[in-house]
Amino acid sequence: NLVKSKKLIICKWSLCFLQNCLNVCMSGSATSCEECLLIHPSCAWCAQEEFGRARTLTSRCDFSQNLLKRGCEPRFIENPRSVSSTLKNRPLSSKSSGSTQYGVTQIQPQKISVSLRPGDQTSFEVQVRPVEDYPVDLYYLMDLSLSMKDDLDTIRNLGTKLAEEMKKLTSNFRLGFGTFVDKNMSPFSYTAPSYQENPCNGYKPFPNCVPSFGFRNLLSLTDKVDRFNEEVQKQMVSRNRDAPEGGFDAILQAAVCKEKIGWRKEAYHLLVFATDDVPHLALDGKLAGLVQPHDGQCHLNDKNEYSASTKMDYPSLALLGEKLAENNIFLIFAVTKRHYVLYKNIRSKVELSVWDHPEDLSLAFTATCQDGQSLPGLRKCADLKIGDTVSFNISVDARGCPPPGTQKSFSIKPVGFKDRLEVSVDYLCGCSCTRYTQNNSSRCSSSGTYTCGTCRCEPGYRGAHCECEEGDTSSLNLGACREAEGKQVCSGRGECSCNQCWCYESEFGKIYGTFCECDDFSCARHKGILCSGHGDCHCGECKCHAGYIGDNCNCSTETAPCVSEDGRMCSGRGSCVCGRCQCTEPGAFGDTCEKCPTCPDACATKRECIECRLFNTGKYADNQTCQRMCKDQIMSVDTLHTDDPSAVLCLYKTENDCVMKFTYSEHASGQSVLKALQKPECASAPDALTVVMAVVGSILLVGIVLLAIWKLVITIHDRREFARFQSARSRARYEMASNPLYKQPISTHPVETVFHMHSKSYNGGVH
User: Of 40, 203, 592, 735, whose Cβ has the fewest other Cβ atoms within 10 Å?
Assistant: First the structure.
């Protein structure tokens, strides 16, 4: 289970080797050559005695090129590879060689051997060619139940017709004939005494028929076609009770009784099954008390009749299919079809089948048919002509190692062909260096076994050369195994033996260091990948490869991916961070921020492409430059529709003072879509009379408007003055006539006084 779990972990990293990812070989913690080879098919073991660092258990297991760089001589490197070798390789035949067909070869090669290292795939090529004039055996198996009476009359001269038609395809044709009804027992047939000799007794439509039977081989395969017609003429139908028939019993006997039927090993085998109803299946026999399953063997007696019909159950579909395939028999369900056409269709297809496939092997097929194209995953070719050659590439991979010395084999054969390719398999799970194993070797202080460059110590001994005893307390100095006072012995990740730390194995990677303080798996990861796959983990710290920075080496210093097609970094709308553009301009997107319908310069950027693509003008007018810089979809339209909210309307003035309009939008697929008018909009020159009339009309209109305004102002002013006058009159009338405090003055003049005054005045000379 431990080895299996390690393999699952390693498989995930098997492709990281060329990318300098995790070293799957050293992280597997293999302590022997055999363990190393099981880690991964790319791993190799160095059996050189003086190699590797002290106290590093996995240092001998590495990629072969790494071992060479570290000083391991090539002759000490154990790295077996899967190979295949051809053992038998007769050339393909082009035509049958006459009456004896054993020299005909339709598959090449015929025998190979493969040596497989688990996980290391190897492949081989197989060619198949159906030869011309190949012999054919056709056995006609007919249902003789009462419902087939009309068909029996139809085939009375079938033998002659079949022979004539099959001669068009082969000169070596043989024909056989057999019949069946059903098991002669209740409830499948009529078993009452009155029906023993004539099951049709009392049946008015057809009063005479023969007793029912399981299967009879009436004519073994022969080239005498007249015999077929004679046997057919003799036959009479029978009558059974239920609708299903015992056809599967008959098919199986016709398939497995090879000697009695007369199947030739070197011929195509065709079994024509003629019936008008479904057959009984396995377990149906229990209705009649038949509990013994069918044994798949031949049970034809001296009379060529099926003797176990009333002793065993009907065969299952699985058993039937197995026996048909085992004896290379094509089963054809037909009554009225033209059988030579069916045979021709069968011959036009080549399909490979695998026999005795070992469970620990994986096979992958790639077909190369007559058109020469490779079709991975297919193992058949159709629509072939006789003589066409097709080939198949077959890859083989072992998923594990069986017990030592195990050899397996399997066969590959075209369906229906006698020819087959035999493949023998042996497994490369051991190391050749084990042949030089030394027990109680002086290299291991006579306390261990030296094998493949390492010592396997006896119980109670430790050390690279088994130089220390586990129970010798004088050799145990725990202080020498602590990094500092108060620290754990061997950092808690190893054991102190012989005054030095021996680090534990880990399924995650390698633990190393004088005090087991380091490992190669405790570094930062990015998306689950150690050091992002762009660095090596050394003692908890990622050492980034050239061109990468960051704690987990996920940041690329490469800026080339950020340069847009116009040569600007991120199209001038963002910055390049870790090899990718981060767009800062609102609305900008794309790998190089090249897409931005809402940016201020969006229209100006796309204008050049409109000019060069539609009018062959502008600074991109050069055809190569235009094709390189302008990859957007540009459509020329009569009318622009601006109802799309995602589209931006762009306008610019041409050299002829015309206005060109286009819309710019981004499709859901990420492609920029430009829709432009077929031609710019240009304004026509104004008419002189129209201009004069427009000026005069404008002046008159302005004068009328000014007069209207003056009149309005005067009217408003007059109304205000009149209102003021009316107000003043109202106030004067109020003061003169309506003031209750005002009284008109009255003057009185007495006469005496007046007179006196006059006299006085007169005397004084006043008057």
Answer: 735
